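Problem 12. The chain below contains 152 residues. Write out its predicted structure in token notation.
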Amino acid sequence: MLGLGEIGGAFLEGLPALSNTKLGKSVAKLFGKNVDEVAKGADDLKGGRLGGDGHREAIITKADDLVSDGWEITGGGGKVKEEYIPGPTKGTTKGSNYADITATKDGNTLRVQVGKQTQSGQPVSRERTNLVEIQKKKPNDLLEFLPYNKKK
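Solution.
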């Protein structure tokens, strides 16, 4: 019997041929992508955990706007890997964060968190927690929240 490690590469190479099969549709449902995208492999993905379409679109649009304003994207933005901001405990990821966009300009660093807001216009709980944690870890830097589900 073969283990997953032994068949993983062959499985990924054969995925495009599975697009219209029951297995291919299951893979698409499981990964939230079509089979061809899954087959490309993780090395082709930019920007870390990109979230859903609305989240990704907001990140890329904001990063493009920042570049137009003279900022350099140094993390995330759909351009490069997101900046990892470690938590207080060494050797674990507990309490760590990833900024959706990190940009620098004229010696200043800006971090942008993109997320959902409540009906009252406040970041949802998870985003508020991330914003507070990032601000504590990087108190001298600029921090912005950009909602992608703006109130209508």
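Discussion. The first strand starts at residue 72 and ends at 76. Students who got a different answer should revisit the alignment rule from Section 12.3.
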